[in-house]
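re: ur question from earlier - yeah i can do the single chain one, its not a big deal. heres the input i used so u can compare w yours
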Amino acid sequence: MSSLDFGIGIVAAIVVAILFRRSAWRDRQEHDLWVSTHPQVMGVVGRMKVHSGGEHSTSYTPVILYTLPNGQRYEIDGRSSGSPAPAVGTEVAVAYDAAIPSTARPVEPPPWTGDLGIGDVISFFLVTAIAAGIATFIRTFVSAIIARL
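and the output i got, formated as C-alpha coordinates:
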Protein backbone atom coordinates (compact mmCIF):
# COMPACT_ATOMS: atom_id res chain seq x y z
CA MET A 1 0.00 0.00 0.00
CA SER A 2 1.46 3.33 -1.02
CA SER A 3 1.06 6.71 0.61
CA LEU A 4 -1.17 7.67 -2.33
CA ASP A 5 -3.51 4.78 -1.50
CA PHE A 6 -3.51 5.80 2.16
CA GLY A 7 -4.27 9.42 1.19
CA ILE A 8 -7.19 8.26 -0.95
CA GLY A 9 -8.44 6.26 2.04
CA ILE A 10 -8.29 9.31 4.31
CA VAL A 11 -10.10 11.49 1.77
CA ALA A 12 -12.81 8.83 1.38
CA ALA A 13 -13.24 8.60 5.17
CA ILE A 14 -13.54 12.40 5.45
CA VAL A 15 -16.20 12.44 2.71
CA VAL A 16 -18.17 9.66 4.44
CA ALA A 17 -17.94 11.47 7.80
CA ILE A 18 -19.19 14.72 6.26
CA LEU A 19 -22.11 12.94 4.58
CA PHE A 20 -23.15 11.26 7.85
CA ARG A 21 -22.90 14.55 9.80
CA ARG A 22 -24.94 16.37 7.15
CA SER A 23 -27.60 13.68 7.32
CA ALA A 24 -27.83 13.98 11.12
CA TRP A 25 -28.03 17.77 10.84
CA ARG A 26 -30.83 17.54 8.23
CA ASP A 27 -32.74 15.07 10.41
CA ARG A 28 -32.49 17.47 13.35
CA GLN A 29 -33.65 20.42 11.21
CA GLU A 30 -36.64 18.39 9.93
CA HIS A 31 -37.56 17.39 13.48
CA ASP A 32 -37.35 20.96 14.76
CA LEU A 33 -39.54 22.22 11.90
CA TRP A 34 -42.13 19.47 12.43
CA VAL A 35 -42.52 20.02 16.17
CA SER A 36 -42.64 23.80 15.77
CA THR A 37 -45.60 23.57 13.37
CA HIS A 38 -47.78 21.14 15.36
CA PRO A 39 -49.80 21.48 18.57
CA GLN A 40 -48.10 20.37 21.77
CA VAL A 41 -49.14 18.84 25.10
CA MET A 42 -47.23 17.67 28.14
CA GLY A 43 -46.76 13.94 28.57
CA VAL A 44 -45.02 11.84 31.17
CA VAL A 45 -42.59 8.93 30.94
CA GLY A 46 -44.81 6.09 32.17
CA ARG A 47 -42.37 3.21 31.93
CA MET A 48 -39.10 2.14 30.38
CA LYS A 49 -38.66 -0.63 27.79
CA VAL A 50 -35.39 -2.49 28.25
CA HIS A 51 -33.76 -4.08 25.21
CA SER A 52 -30.94 -6.42 26.13
CA GLY A 53 -28.67 -7.62 23.37
CA GLY A 54 -25.99 -8.97 25.67
CA GLU A 55 -23.84 -7.88 28.55
CA HIS A 56 -22.72 -4.57 27.01
CA SER A 57 -25.53 -3.69 24.64
CA THR A 58 -28.55 -2.87 26.79
CA SER A 59 -30.67 0.03 25.53
CA TYR A 60 -33.64 1.79 27.07
CA THR A 61 -36.70 3.26 25.39
CA PRO A 62 -38.96 5.58 27.41
CA VAL A 63 -42.69 5.12 26.84
CA ILE A 64 -44.33 8.54 26.91
CA LEU A 65 -48.00 8.78 27.87
CA TYR A 66 -49.93 11.86 26.80
CA THR A 67 -53.52 13.07 26.80
CA LEU A 68 -54.97 15.37 24.14
CA PRO A 69 -57.22 18.30 25.07
CA ASN A 70 -60.26 16.20 24.04
CA GLY A 71 -59.32 13.52 26.61
CA GLN A 72 -57.94 10.91 24.20
CA ARG A 73 -54.95 9.08 25.66
CA TYR A 74 -51.98 7.87 23.64
CA GLU A 75 -48.50 6.57 24.17
CA ILE A 76 -45.39 6.76 22.03
CA ASP A 77 -41.86 5.51 22.32
CA GLY A 78 -39.18 8.08 22.97
CA ARG A 79 -35.69 7.78 21.60
CA SER A 80 -33.66 4.78 22.71
CA SER A 81 -30.39 5.33 24.50
CA GLY A 82 -27.80 3.47 26.49
CA SER A 83 -29.10 4.88 29.76
CA PRO A 84 -32.62 4.91 31.24
CA ALA A 85 -33.22 8.60 30.60
CA PRO A 86 -35.39 10.50 31.03
CA ALA A 87 -36.48 8.79 34.25
CA VAL A 88 -39.97 7.38 34.76
CA GLY A 89 -42.23 10.20 35.94
CA THR A 90 -40.39 12.90 34.00
CA GLU A 91 -42.62 15.36 32.13
CA VAL A 92 -41.93 15.51 28.41
CA ALA A 93 -43.35 17.93 25.83
CA VAL A 94 -45.00 16.10 22.93
CA ALA A 95 -45.97 17.52 19.53
CA TYR A 96 -48.75 15.72 17.67
CA ASP A 97 -50.53 15.79 14.34
CA ALA A 98 -54.18 16.69 15.01
CA ALA A 99 -55.28 14.45 12.09
CA ILE A 100 -53.27 11.45 13.37
CA PRO A 101 -52.53 12.06 17.07
CA SER A 102 -50.89 8.67 17.55
CA THR A 103 -47.96 9.79 15.40
CA ALA A 104 -46.67 12.26 17.98
CA ARG A 105 -43.03 13.04 18.67
CA PRO A 106 -41.17 14.20 21.76
CA VAL A 107 -40.39 17.89 21.26
CA GLU A 108 -36.83 17.64 22.47
CA PRO A 109 -34.84 14.79 20.98
CA PRO A 110 -31.56 13.90 22.66
CA PRO A 111 -29.15 16.73 21.83
CA TRP A 112 -26.90 16.14 18.90
CA THR A 113 -23.65 17.62 20.09
CA GLY A 114 -21.41 16.55 17.26
CA ASP A 115 -18.93 15.15 19.80
CA LEU A 116 -16.89 12.25 18.53
CA GLY A 117 -17.03 8.93 20.30
CA ILE A 118 -14.78 5.89 20.09
CA GLY A 119 -17.19 4.36 17.55
CA ASP A 120 -16.70 7.37 15.27
CA VAL A 121 -12.92 7.05 15.47
CA ILE A 122 -13.00 3.31 14.79
CA SER A 123 -15.39 3.85 11.86
CA PHE A 124 -13.10 6.52 10.41
CA PHE A 125 -10.10 4.18 10.51
CA LEU A 126 -12.15 1.31 9.12
CA VAL A 127 -13.39 3.38 6.16
CA THR A 128 -9.82 4.62 5.61
CA ALA A 129 -8.46 1.05 5.53
CA ILE A 130 -11.20 -0.23 3.21
CA ALA A 131 -10.86 2.69 0.79
CA ALA A 132 -7.05 2.42 0.81
CA GLY A 133 -7.34 -1.32 0.12
CA ILE A 134 -9.69 -0.67 -2.80
CA ALA A 135 -7.34 2.02 -4.14
CA THR A 136 -4.40 -0.42 -3.89
CA PHE A 137 -6.36 -3.12 -5.69
CA ILE A 138 -7.42 -0.78 -8.50
CA ARG A 139 -3.92 0.65 -8.88
CA THR A 140 -2.41 -2.86 -9.00
CA PHE A 141 -5.05 -4.09 -11.45
CA VAL A 142 -4.58 -1.09 -13.77
CA SER A 143 -0.78 -1.46 -13.59
CA ALA A 144 -1.07 -5.14 -14.56
CA ILE A 145 -3.26 -4.28 -17.56
CA ILE A 146 -0.88 -1.54 -18.69
CA ALA A 147 2.10 -3.90 -18.33
CA ARG A 148 0.43 -6.38 -20.69
CA LEU A 149 0.04 -3.75 -23.40
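DSSP finds two helices and five strands in the chain. not sure if urs matches, ping me
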